[in-house]
Amino acid sequence: MAATAAGVRAIGPSAIRGGLYTFRGNPFRQGPAARHYEPDAIVAMADGRICDCGPAAEVAPRLPAGTEIRSYANALITPGFVDAHVHYPQLPVIGAGGEALLEWLADFTYPAEQAYGDLDYAREVATRYVAENLRHGITTAAVFGTVHPQSVDALFEVAQRHDLRMIAGKVLMDRNAPAALRDDAQRGYDESRTLIDRWHGRGRLGYAVTPRFAATSTPAQLELAATLWRETPGAWLQSHVAENRAEVDWIRTLYPAHASYLDVYAHFGLLGRRAIYAHGIHLDDGEFAALAQSETALVHCPTSNSFLGSGLFPLQRAIDARRPVRVALGTDLGAGTSFSMLRTMQAASEVAQLCGHPLSPAGAWWLATRGGAQALDLDASIGSIEPGKDADLVVLDLRSTPLIDFRMRYVDDIDEALAVQMALGDDRAIRATWVAGRLAWDRDAAARP
Ligand code: GUN
Ligand code: ZN
């Protein structure tokens, strides 16, 4: 194997065989024609990318001599999942609470986040977080650290070891938080810049300027966040918006001159492509139009929204074809209650039902793959299975539990098969995760003594 200039080992050709499910378009726009199902496919990979894919009978004769083919029976190869909003430092408080957002932040989250000044601790949690991502088939995530730069160093170090595509940033927070978690506008800027210089664009890592939300940043900090974002080509900006009614009321008192919550971010220049806002439950049509017009993305985090009682995200309104907002799915751990994107898709489907607009299995799957990639402005590289895309893949075991095995006997088509996986599946369904053409998680090998 040759070593590339960057020191990352180039990988020779390899291939996997099984069912294939991916998207050629957007199922919310093009309907069933947007999805592509192949019952027996080969996906070939070289140098971290997909180099060939299609029906096994067509691809097999084209493979270079000596290509190793790994066959997966009763399995579906699908793009690696995209978790577009998550707080890895909150893993130690998942499930704690029974409170609404602002109380939960004060009572559980802020105390837990104070530990991340300790780099060794941050490394321990980051290692667990990345391992869980691989076990759950998540190959790209947009991640919040804490206010401590060490929290981001730890995460990027671990992600880099696996060659994972990871977006992350140090939280900016200079008011309305415990003193131990506050920076100030200049320090937040300087520490973020140092992290950008160290990590942004290194391998598959990207930096996200991360003001926590408008309530915990002064106007001076939001201004510097926008400056930093503008100064850093290819960087993301991530934050929260309109998650909870008390939060929305609080923003109104903190920023009385602004027409709406979203208008605060718009005023400071914090909307645009590669800006990612979690939640957006309590937005009006004007705010959705501003998001669409600026190509700003929203992240729907259904398990979190239920856990904190935040409300029902109006997906149908958000993606209205007249002014469609880019929407991704997020686990939002630790307010979210599941690492599993299958469980998150199911939760999104249930919220859609409660809103009176059912979400199709294809729609949910798209949000967790190609739609998520598009929301992050990464769809040129990830989110679908086609030659030239990064070889980030999930192999889903379609019979991962006795009940799923039983239920699958009654399945008529691929849509129903996906619905069953979403309703009954979890981490046990992730048979393998491939990252940049390498086998990064092999469930059955891990289970062997
Ligand atoms: N709003 C501001 N901070 C947070 C957070 O850590 N989690 C959630 N769910 N919402 C937030
Ligand atoms: Zn969040």
What descriptive keywords fit this protein?
449 residues, alpha/beta, Urease, subunit C, domain 1, TIM Barrel, seven-stranded mixed sheet, 18 helices, 37% helix, binds guanine, binds zinc ion
Per CATH, the architecture of the largest domain is Alpha-Beta Barrel
> What compounds sit in this structure?
guanine, zinc ion
Outline the low-pLDDT stretches.
1-10
How helical, in percent, are the residues? Answer: 25-40%
Can you tell me about this structure?
The chain has 18 helices and 16 strands. The chain has 449 residues and is an alpha/beta fold. It folds into two domains: 14-79 and 384-447, Roll (Urease, subunit C, domain 1); 81-375, Metal-dependent hydrolases (TIM Barrel). Strands 5, 6, 7, 8, 9, 10, 11, 12 and 13 form a nine-stranded parallel β-sheet that branches. α5 (149-161) links the parallel β6 (138-144) and β7 (165-169). α4 packs across α5 (149-161), α5 (149-161) packs parallel to α6 (185-199) and α13 (341-354) crosses α14 (361-368). The longest helix has 17 residues, at 119-135. It starts with 13 loop residues before the first strand and ends with a helix. The protein binds guanine and zinc ion (ZN). Zinc ion binds at residues 85, 87, 240, 278, 332. Residues 85, 87, 240, 278, 332 line the site of zinc ion.
